[in-house]
Amino acid sequence: MSSQTSSSLKVDRTTKTLRELTLEKMRDAIFNGHFQPGERLIERSLCEQLDVSRSVVREVLRHLETEGLVETIAHQGPVVAVLDADKAAQIYELRALLEGHAARICAEKASDEVIRQLDALNARTQEAFAQRDFQEVLVRTSAFYEAMFKGAGLTMAWSIVQSLNARINRLRAMTISTSGRSTEAAAEMERIMSALRRRDPQKAQEASEAHVRRVAQIVAERLEAQAMK
Q1: DSSP output for 59-94
Q2: What is the fold of 85-228?
């Protein structure tokens, strides 16, 4: 076999599959409210809207169910999972524990290169905030936390966070669009970064936990307001 033929058979690993693209579209549609909590997700309608086969839609719905974004109701089928205040509070409790610990260990052990990387990632997140590109805020925020956990050597803890990431980003999508949140979030993240730069584990943990408590408060208020409608 010629080297040219061998090269042409190599899989392009940068190309996303149709399933992956459809999954991203559906996640975004749930995050931005295109599909409302409790709304039925009818396969035939989704096939038409997404222009994909029923088998792809079914795969994607099953995956979204594992992420907690979709649930199957007897006699109804798949629906967008309803945001539950108690479950949201539990997610934020876990976030405070895991992110606070990661910030502490990062301040103690991360290399100077990791701290510089976190600074750059946070700056890019704030740029997306300033442009009101909320989808990009979600992407860049996830990248920041991945770098912080991995920079602290907490790969198993990051795996736990990843298992909750879809739920976290759904809640995060609620908070980042709140009026005045851009300025507030920038100040909170700067307190985290300032503690990391100074290599102050206690302040890094406290700043990280305070950040999570604030977003938990915003979500609790919004869910309470929705429940009263």
Answers
A1: HHHHHHHHTTSEEEETTTEEEEPPP-HHHHHHHHHH
A2: Four Helix Bundle (Hemerythrin (Met), subunit A) (1.20.120)
Q: What gap in Å lies between CA 26 and CA 221, rounded to an integer? A: 26
- What three-state secondary structure class fits 40? strand
CA nearest neighbour of 148 among 181, 121, 168: 121
The overall average pLDDT reported for the chain is: 92
Dig out the tokens for 72 from the structure: 């199957």
The CATH architecture annotation of domain 13-80 reads Orthogonal Bundle (1.10)
Q: Count CB neighbours of 211 within 10 A.
A: 22
CB count in 10 Å sphere of residue 212? 20
What's the pLDDT tens digit per position in 77-109? 999 999 899 999 999 999 999 999 999 999 999
**Which residues face 78 on adjacent strands?**
72
Given a contact cutoff of 8 angstroms between Cβ atoms, the answer to whether 65 and 71 are in contact is yes
Long-range contacts of 81-88 (CB under 8 A, 24+ apart): 81/37, 82/37, 82/38, 83/37, 83/170, 83/171, 83/223, 83/226, 85/220, 85/223, 85/224, 85/227, 87/167, 88/171, 88/216, 88/219, 88/220, 88/223
